[in-house]
Amino acid sequence: MSTIHWTETQPRSARWHSESGLPLPRRVVVADDRMRAAVAYRLACEGTALLWRGDFQNARQLLRAMDRRVGGTAPGAADTPAETFRLQRRFRAHRARVLGKLLVLLDADHGLDLRRAPDVRQAVAEAYGAFDGPVAVALSELLGVISARQWREKGVYVPALEALVHPHYGVFAPTRSEYVDLVAQAPLPRGGDVRVAFDLGTGTGVLAAVLARRGVGQVVATDVSARARACARDNAERLGLTGVVRVTGPELYPEGRADLVVCNPPWIPGRPASDLDLGVYDAGGGMLQSFLSGLAGRLEPGGEGWLVLSDLAERLGLRSREQLMTAVESAGLRVAGRMDTSPRHARVRDTDDPLHAVRAAEVTSLWRLTVVQPSA
Fold first, then answer.
1. Which of 126, 216, 297, 341 has the most crowded CB, counting CB atoms within 10 A?
2. Where's the Methyltransferase small domain (predicted)?
3. Per-residue model confidence as pLDDT tens digits over 345-358
4. How far apart are CA 142 and CA 135, in angstroms?
5. d(CA 186, CA 295)
6. How far is CA 354 from each of CA 86, 272, 357, rounded to the nearest angstrom?
7. Does 3.30.540.10 match the CATH number of domain 156-371?
């Protein structure tokens, strides 16, 4: 953490915290209920942060008013899907920077001392851990922390499990059930006699739970993120699967070999802006390549690797099918089969999205990979 400074009858300071990688504000002014949206928006665009000391609900209204002003500059469709995607991502980063200039102050007990403020202590403690003094955060981020706590409490229903999975803050939630259904329906290798399976990049642990429910003897789930590992352990316990699912990390592959190795890497080969982006962006396709290059040496005879991957990157022009197949072949693997499914998420129906046609055509596949046997 770094430190921000401001004057409020006297010089004051607080630690700065940003999960989304927002830069440290260099200039901070105090704002309250008298602050007009036009002024707040201008100051934020100029790089000045506003530390809110008024009514919490008024702060939310101000943030919405600022967001409407940012939205007026949203890009439309460009010449190619790849350029449209890049422009949209650049705009989202700009929007996050502007809205991230409206700050609130959390005390050492994770509380928020503002009129009509909700009790955020549990949500903040779960997301950020212990404080050793006051901490300044963007209001937009705090609202995300509050929302994540609600998701964690109520859970996400997963039809393939007929049960709830509870995502933690910063862990990708399994709201897109189609990829989970593929893992639930694909024929298990070795005639169904799968003694050990690896789930690489487990996240909430949803795919590990599906494999365990399908009768796999032992599922070893890995993740680079400590938050994800804690989340997967929590869900395994909630589902009564702690005797079957073991969570480890941060290495991608655990020790030993498996009859089945499942990997659902981030689908977009781009640089994540922060740790919160790791569920979507795979810098340089590194996780995908690591899964493929390590698979042959980790499979038991007759075993399979299941690559669960959307073709959205291909449709955006960020990766080609030829590049994917070349990576498979270079790893000494072959495609034994493939199952496809279409997306069912809400963005498919959003005709105002400049990338609507690309998202509507998206296909998610489960690629069944086996080791190429040397010729006699």
1. 216
2. 194-310
3. 777 777 878 888 88
4. 12
5. 19
6. 12, 22, 8
7. no
